[in-house]
Amino acid sequence: MSWHPLQLESESSHPIPLYRWDRPSSARAVVHITHGMAEHSQRYGALAKQLQAEGYQVVAHDHRGHGTCASPHQGHFADDQGWSLVCEDLRRVHRWVAQEFCGLPLYLLGHSMGSYISLGYLMRDPEPLAGVILSGSNYGSPTLYRIARGVARIERWRLGARTPSLLMDRLGFGSFNRAFKPNRTPFDWLSRDPEQVDRYLADPLCGFPCSSQLWIDLLGGLLEISSPMRLTQVPNLPLHIIGGEEDPVSAPRGLHDLYRALKQPPREQVSIKLYPGARHELFNEINRDEVVSELLDWLSSTPTLSAS
Questions:
Q1: Domains in the chain: boundaries
Q2: Mind listing the pLDDT tens digit for each residue in 38-92?
Q3: What would the DSSP string read from start to end of 16-72?
Q4: Which of the chain's termini has less CB crowding within 10 Å, N or C?
Q5: What pLDDT, on the 0 to 100 scale, is given for residue 112?
Q6: Contact at 8 Å (CB) between 3 and 21?
Q7: Cross-sheet strand order for the sheet of 131-135
Q8: Domain 3-306 indexed as CATH 3.40.50.300
Q9: Nearest of 61, 38, 33 to residue 214 by alpha carbon
Q10: Strands 239-244 and 106-111, sheet pairing
Q11: pLDDT for 193
């Protein structure tokens, strides 16, 4: 199975790198993968292959400042309105999917930062979706988000909007490895599989520090998606939360809190599955086949596919 690079143009004339994996012989639905912070969409090739084997067309795109969209400012969404722009980029991809794969139901799979962007998009009158999977997500403290955003604003004043902020990188990720001492690498928190961690370390499109402005955009987005009032704007559709019980991003109660925040009337189709021992990147974990198998079961159980 191979992937095919494409390029869309956003509403702001920004090029969106898009990848479409080979179409299965009899497609059931489309799964759109939206990746996390300091990584890129081509890391999901193994997952795409497993989904494709079960009849799912898979597409993914690189967020602004990531992957093949990293030049000239890696780790930077935009000088202004970055959060709204990445949410609208997601809409642009969905409109393309609706034209390219007319009639096929669409599922959105967001990992980590991609899950936050997915929630931000769901609050903005999204295109029709058959379901959403939120992987490695979180539901944190608005007070901490505000404090961190204040620090990021000082960093922007000190460094400029586009300059990577090592301070924000340390504040955002510096504590994640502590639970896994003695540490073999700075990224042991991603997975128990050392081969996958080493691949991440060797990839020049992974693990980079992001700009102070991206942190301001992201923290503003986190404040938005943690607002109970804004969460009422998330449509009533199947929502599935998955994560590792040892994921430091959401420790200790972030995913449970997200589940409770989302499972409010009229939304009743909200589910959660946590994996003991697993860390942040479920699809690169030692039990990834179990994770994918249960993801496939969830997809098949959603009303759109179970009725077909």
A1: 3-306
A2: 999 999 999 999 999 999 999 999 999 999 887 779 999 999 999 999 999 999 9
A3: EEEEEEPPPSS--EEEEEE--TT--GGGGHHHHHHHHHTTEEEEEEPPTTSGGG-SS
A4: C
A5: 98
A6: yes
A7: 3-9, 15-21, 56-61, 29-34, 106-111, 131-135, 239-244, 270-275
A8: no
A9: 38
A10: unpaired
A11: 98
